[in-house]
Amino acid sequence: MPKTPYAAPAATRPTRWTALALAGAALVSVTAGAVLPASATESHGPPVTGTARAHHSVDTAALTALMAPGAMASGTMVRVGGTGPGWTGATGPLSQDPSANFRIGSITKLFTSTLVLQLVGEGRFTLDTPVQELLPGTLPAHWKPITVGRLLSHTSGIPEPCVAFGPGEAPTPEQAVSHWTDPKCAAPQHPVLTQQYNGANYFLLGMVVEKATGRSYADEVQHRIARPLGLRHTYLPKPGDRSVPAPVLADGGEIEPWAWAEGGMLSNAPDLERFMTALLRGRLLRPAQQRQLFVMPALSAGAGDRFSAGGLMRAEVDHTVVWGKTGSMGRSTNGVFATEGGRRTVVYSLLPAGRDRDLLREHISELVGAAL
């Protein structure tokens, strides 16, 4: 795809991850909604079905070993791409078609942040605009102003909700936000000293997108990202639609009906690779907003920082910075990462086979390290 400047739509080597990556990419993927089986299991599914094409940065032997069904994951899909040849493979109970569709969970947030930054570039609002101005009456009157930029970077200070969703409940975005703003729950922390990963931030951003454009979030994803990039398998299902078009990567287990703009989309590995490459190469954003993708918030508790001002997760692989996002839905744990400029990309999805999160973090770090 040729590189073209962003324009507003007419209608509107084998490596290891460092501790930073372990704390960010793997931890979020495990804690953002994955439901792990009650005990570790051994799977004797089919062997790795991969297509290896020589490239110095893909350790195919290590990938094959790491993807074999075992104690860490009963099934794994990996797609490596970017500049030069790539590699794809799938194991275990996953579809042996590495291009199969799956629910991407919180990787959805990258699409939301991209929409928001596009709207900033069009002058609809700024990163310093309080969300209270854009969505009057949505947040409690006694809360201090929370800017769009703080929502993007998970520095809003909004704590986790103290009110749980009921079984089978499928609330609207407004009802979902009410769980975080219930009078019984704590108010946002001030001053904000560290990032706190929170789906409320992206529910609010999805509502901002709809208010600013007058169109649904799902329509904006298609209008501004999916159709221009040719992402034919990437979309937000309609409320109540829990189906996944064939071929399906895996049975994701219980589907959360309320994830919407913070975790509700479907896609596949080729689409995610194309999206991530376009995003990092500046094909979706104007230059000023493109720079925000790589600015890390200046917080006094900087050791915990892992999300940029534009919503990207930052990690390091043997002194090489990579950017992306993790996401979970049902039993699956997913991720998409790329090196600077989208030169190398990796998309993965796996079915964890145990509860040991430290070992799972290490497994994911080795998996992505071998891929990049």
UniProtKB/TrEMBL annotation:
Cleavable signal peptide: 1-34
Keywords: Hydrolase, Signal
Keyword Kinase in annotation: no
Pfam families in UniProt: Beta-lactamase
Name this polypeptide is given: Serine hydrolase
Record domain Beta-lactamase-related: where: 96-353
InterPro entries in the cross-refs: AmpC-like, Beta-lactam-related, Beta-lactam/transpept-like, TAT_signal
Keyword Signal among record annotations: yes
GO MF annotation terms: hydrolase activity
